[in-house]
Amino acid sequence: MSNLLHVTRQKMASNDNRTLLFLVFSFLSLLQINSCIAQNVKGGYWFLGSGITASDIDSTLFTHLFCAFADLDASTNQVVISSSNAQSFATFTSDVQQKNPSVLTLLSIGGGGGGSIADNFASMASQSSSRKTFIDSSIALARSNGFHGLDLDWEYPDTDAKMANLALLLQEWRAAVAAEAASSGKDALLLSAAVYYRPHYWSPTDYPAAVMAANLDWINAMAYDFFGSWSSTTGPLAALYNPGNGLSGDDGVSAWIQAGMPAGQIVLGFPFYGRAFTLADANNHGYFAPITGTAISPDGSIVYNQITKYISQHSATTVYNSTVVSAYCYSGTTWITYDDTQTISTKVGYAKGRGLKGYFAWHVGGDDNWVLSQTAWNSWT
Ligand SMILES: *[C@@H]1O[C@H](CO)[C@@H](O)[C@H](O)[C@H]1NC(C)=O
Fold first, then answer.
1. Domain locations in the chain as residue ranges
2. Which residue ranges does UniProt annotate as crossing the membrane (predicted)?
3. pTM of the full predicted structure?
């Protein structure tokens, strides 16, 4: 009897151990699955009028899609969706989830429209009451339109005071997002911000990197637009490595990490567009060659699928520079800097290798039959 009890106890004990081990392993694999889902961003921005609808997006090639842009109403400090965007934003999430039910969507607020948009952000962020209006309305708008998160695109806070107010805004935003999740029982909204490629912008004070790390899920580092309509020479739009002027994605990533942003919260941005310039001399067509201005469009911007057309129609010469990781093409005096498949695959490999959170493209409508998106997706290995 006592022997039997003993044996039974041993059996129970080993069963308990097995149960415990099973639980531990399930927990660990759950953690792993969770961190896989939570960890990587293979993202892209979309906007209405970019040439494709949300339903056109091959969302199987993305983990996150950013819907651009909701606006800050300067008179009320509320986040609003313009009437022209309302219909397509309301169905954005269900549209992109048709092909990929697990893709997550973020409503992006603001954008690169310049002066008054940035001024309105600065004004809103300067008072606690207007910050609260902004924050509360952003959460309500995200929920009522079915988004999984919010993305702040303030281009850019450019004074010490604005940087300090940005820090307050992000702290209060995170607290409100957490409180809303607790009271609604839903997953907390994701919170990201599109930022300058490096933490040092115009103001003497850098971005509040530590506060951003503590309150944002990640930052989207806009590592492009290094050359544009203001330039007097050709040069790589979005070099990964320093072409000689210090403007590169790698310089920006290193500076963000140095400033206190963990690599695992940095998402590296690259362009699905290029910039076209007019060469001063058709025979001088390398980097830093003199130009007389932009070409093809007023600010020289041209999406990737138009670049591939241009190359075939004009039999343009294409060059991939593996030192800086950038491509260009030229025909006569027209010279275009852009990211091709080789550029994208190298950048994604870099992002993975440096332990970054992921990558994003501005903007998915620029792709050519999804070749860049597919290349990016396949290169995160
Ligand atoms: C690539 O760009 C760098 C930086 O401008 C330059 O020094 C180098 O000669 C270029 N390489 C090629 C193969 O054009």
1. 1-38, 40-273+344-380
2. none
3. 0.90
Query: How many residues can be counted in the chain?
Result: 381
Predicted confidence at residue 348, as pLDDT, reads: 98
Strand partners, 275: 301, 337
Burial 312-342 (b: 16+ CB within 10 A, else e): eeeebeeeebeebbbbbbbbebbbbbbbbbe
CATH number among 3.20.20.80, 3.20.20.210, 3.90.1310.10, 3.40.50.720, domain 40-273+344-380: 3.20.20.80
pLDDT in tens, 169-193: 999 999 999 999 999 999 999 999 9
List the catalytic residue out of 95, 153, 155, 250: 155
Q: What is the pLDDT of residues 290-302, one digit of tens each?
A: 999 999 999 999 9
Query: What is the average pLDDT value for the chain, to the nearest integer?
Result: 92
Specify the residue with its C-alpha closest to ligand 1, atom 8: 323
Verify whether ligand 1 is closer than 6 Å to residue 300 (CB atom): no
